[in-house]
Amino acid sequence: MTQPDDSFESVHAARTPGSRKLFERASKVLIGGTTRTSVFHPPYPAYMVRGEGCRTWDVDGNAYVDFLNNYTTLIHGHCFEPVVEALKRQAEAGSCFGAPSEHEIRLAEIICARVTSVRKLRFASSGTEAVMYALRLARAFTGRNLIAKFEGGFHGAYDDCQISYCLSADHVAAAHGPVSVRNSRGLETGVEDRVIMLPFNRLDETVAAIKAHAGQLACVIVEPVIGSGGVIPAERDFLQGLREVTARHGILLIFDEIMTLRLGFGGAQGHYGVEPDLTTFGKIVSGGLPLAAFGGREDVMAPLDPRNGPPPVPQSGTFNGCAAATAAGVACMEALTRERIRELNAMGDALKSRLDEVFRRTGTTAQVTGFGSLLNVHFSAEPATDHRGAVRADRERLERLFQALLLRGYVIAARGMICLSTAMGEDEIDGFVDAVAEAIH
Ligand SMILES: Cc1ncc(COP(=O)(O)O)c(C=O)c1O
Hints:
Elements: H1 8-15, H2 17-29, E1 48-52, E2 55-58, E3 63-66, H3 69-72, H4 81-93, H5 102-114, E4 120-124, H6 127-142, E5 146-150, H7 169-174, E6 195-198, H8 203-212, E7 217-222, E8 225-226, E9 232-233, H9 236-248, E10 252-256, H10 267-272, E11 278-281, E12 292-296, H11 298-301, H12 323-335, H13 338-361, E13 367-371, E14 374-378, H14 387-392, H15 395-407, E15 410-411, E16 417-419, H16 426-439
Parallel strand pairs: 3-15, 5-6, 5-7, 7-10, 10-11
Antiparallel strand pairs: 1-2, 2-3, 4-12, 8-9, 11-12, 13-14, 14-16
Bound molecules: pyridoxal-5'-phosphate.
């Protein structure tokens, strides 16, 4: 008989027999046993039954402190009371209609009031869709076909965005960059020809590439802080330079704030003081339900307007502005005051300093990127200023950290991303810092 060992796989399997059973059942009907690439990790993920505040519980009764928050979605943690109440009320009143409801107006008012570059808004069901519409509007408005994005910029599953959102160590070693890499099979033929790849935080090269394609570029899309590509903040000068060059050439600047809205009352653009032409939103805007949005300049959004006949850019979407999701979004965003964001970001900045200190004290070659409530650990010495920096770090060590934290009851993203919620306090931060110190031992 084989003895259980102390590998992650064995310990995880011993802690989670109920999850293993569910995964086996799932694998009979869901390909690969899951329905979202990022929630799988070997040998199988734990299945959650409940969340409350900053904690979740799996089917086997294991408790976790949630530093992932559904990949940055749950800014107030799980079962935030105002959201639960709003949802209950709306479930009893009707979850969705083939007609608008007042909640969508209120949520749009909140977003437009905070993110001042957004004069007009529309809702969509997912971030992928919001980005797709933003790109389509840019093409419609400019009459140009090319778009530009950055290496490591993740903007969802639309074909144009599946280029170079993730590089391998081989890609990084092979070329100084930027490189055009298909991150999925099955993309439309020639998609990489209409997507110009740019190097994040390298302004001179970015400006040169934009100028070289200026007459054909509809837009440049950028995350002000690269999210899934490693939580790498843009330098302020870089974003300002990007704003200047795009404006000079009539190219629309799109900020993808699906992940970064949480970083400031007016999003990351408020923090940086740079106004894009269009912005995409998702994650926190719905308090944990499927919802996203896109908006910006009124003249750019105008082709969506149906008031003078069929709009030049029709927008469909059965669940756009879904009453339950927008009601939950209003409850979430109203509770997310300027003060709450300031406190949450201060908690994140303090956590970053404490993790830096742990790494210094233990002689660990590691750094923490990001700021406020969004951070990422990288096991590398050279400062990570772009996605390439994240790729060059020791990924195996990161995986071991993820696994060791999971077994200690702390969930982060396997790629090292750490996301805070307002449901956390000093105890959770202390516990997390101790768990990281033990895990890297
Ligand atoms: C910056 C960014 N843009 C777009 C998306 C896609 O959003 P969704 O998963 O809702 O389609 C994501 C998702 O993680 C994201 O982080």
